[in-house]
Specification:
- The complex is a heterodimer of chains A (196) and B (275).
- By secondary structure, chain A is mainly alpha-helical.
- In chain A, 44% of the residues lie in helices and 0% in strands.
- The N terminus of chain A is likely disordered.
- Chain B has a three-stranded mixed β-sheet. A two-stranded antiparallel ribbon of chain B has the order 1-2. A two-stranded antiparallel ribbon of chain B has the order 3-4.
- The longest helix of chain B is centred in the middle third of the chain and has 14 residues.
- The two termini of chain B are 23 Å apart.
- Classes of the chains: A mainly alpha (196), B mainly alpha (275).
- At the A-B interface, helix 1, helix 3 and helix 4 of A face helix 10, strand 3, strand 7 and strand 8 of B.
Amino acid sequence: MKKIVIAGAVAGLGLLVACQPAAQQTEAPKKEVTAQKKKLSKHEKFKIALENQDKYQKACSNPVQLVPEGIDIETFKKEMLATVKFPEGGVVGKNIARGEKLFGDPKKGGKSRRGNCYACHCGDPQIIACGNIGPSLRGYGKRGIDPKETYIRIYNSWAVNPCSVMPRLGYHGVLSPEEIADIVAYMHDPNSPLNK
Amino acid sequence: MKKRTLFASALLAGGAILGTAAVAQEQLPTHLKELLELGMHPGHSFVDEGREMFHKPGPNGKSCATCHGQDGVKLEGAYAKMPRYYKDIGKVADIDLRILACMTKYMGYDKNDKKFMKKFNKWSGPYRVPLASYVASLSNGQEINVQLNHPEEKRMYKLGEELWFMRVGARDFSCGICHTVLAGKRIRLQGLPDPVKQKVYTHWPAYRFGSDRMWTMEDRVRSCWKAYFLYVKQWNEKKDWVKKPPPYSEWVIALELYMKKAANGGTIEVPGLLR
């Protein structure tokens, strides 16, 4: 049985690569190069990505996906708030157009679909393809909310609502402080389609 | 059989009403329901393609049928018990990995042959997806019956449950966020199903109109991981995005085991049909 399998495997290779030793020769140095660069295998990468789970995510990883008993919610919020970095120019940015792009079009937010707020929130009545996971942001700028609060919510929603479904976009570096400030500007601008 | 002849082949297959699980049907747009009623189910051409491949000899002259019988008679009901532990490979395998193991261990295909592996992994390739669809269809009408007897099966189930609720990545997501907590809500326009409560496993592998492809559960689980935005912080804090877990890896199979166990008692009707 084993013999047949091995013979079959060699025959199979033979069809693709005419000359076996040559194939081995070209393969050997390749391995060395990758070893030098310390390129991680897909397996190793995925494992590290899972090990990157932070202690807050770990706390929220339970069947109800909420802060478990025994963890103080106020402390959790305080620790999350302490991670929020503010941009030099203040929490209301100048580039409203960029804010609109990041808020809306996932393709224009870069390859990682960085903002993509419409996946979960409705807002601009022209945009019908919007999710109902988070509350509607229609008329958000007219609610008298402090822009700093909006900024914190987007930077790290867990500073407001620990274990929330809303991703911590600034905390993970998905959006930079300046980009978040531009989204805030778009959301609070009286001329924004959200508020008209 | 060419996939592009799907409508013709489905028509030839006759006017039988080809069912999919009730859950899937509810979500189907009207034009797909109509196609089903006419007996036109594109997934069937993949099953046919798989049947042909099943009887085709591998590099050492053996075909799947050599071990599993003409028309796979010995595999009837096998899919209902998968994923499970297999002694010959020493692992818990799902249908994709089981097929790969059979081809490389017993039929003379070479696991280290990159060309072969690429062809095997490929969505539109001739091996994995058609064979999985065909083998799964041999369990049609049977109830899903996944048991946790072997210690490895117990360990993998626990891992699957843990992964289901594991918040991780740049989006702080878990399977449970979208499919347990938010089930019934909409992400953009896409409704979120609950694969655990709804026993969706009964209609997998499934043909999806949106992508014009047959998907195995491997494909589904790995694609859902993409939503997480997993990253590796390696050099100078630069983030290296990781899209999907490697195919046939423990992470994928553990989640499949977790979901399929929850579907125990559900009646298998494949190929499924999704939007």
